[in-house]
Amino acid sequence: MRLLLPFALSLCTGTAVAADPAIPAAAPTFDAALAQRTGADERGMRRYVLVILKTGPTRMPDGEARNAMFAGHMANIGRLAKEGKLALAGPFVQDPAGWRGLFVLAVGDIGEAKALVATDPVILHGEMIAEYHPWYGSAATMLIPEWSERLVPPAQPAP
Length: 159
Fold this sequence. Notes:
This is YCII-related domain-containing protein. With 159 residues, this protein is α+β, with helices and mostly antiparallel strands. It has two domains: 27 residues, no CATH class; 100 residues, Dimeric alpha+beta barrel (Alpha-Beta Plaits). Helices cover 34% and strands 22% of the residues. It contains six helices and four strands. A four-stranded antiparallel β-sheet has the order 2-3-1-4. It starts with a helix and ends in a 10-residue tail after the last helix.
């Protein structure tokens, strides 16, 4: 957490923050190629659609079909991330109001977001429903998928 907080602060403020207060922070350096790759505007921001996944009207019973549905959900998440359409996804730990997870989709309008979310098995089966909100956030959010891949160790063979 000690290393992530300065990084998060630098993303929010647009200034460099040293991980160790004894080390002076370097001045931020504009990277035009990175700005273009992430879709950044002149403020280093971009448009997204925040999707809140909530409990839907039809709970799939436990068993193979439910397991397959969630495997398809995870595969869909991976596909959207590889296509550059999904910047961030994850479940809520607990929410009594039925909030299950969220997507931050790298699209500019709700219509495109709805078309992408409609491909997800949890939506198709009614396990979850989606709520859509336009969001304007740091273009650096687009870097999360490539950094996330570096944090997951390779699968270990079964003993």
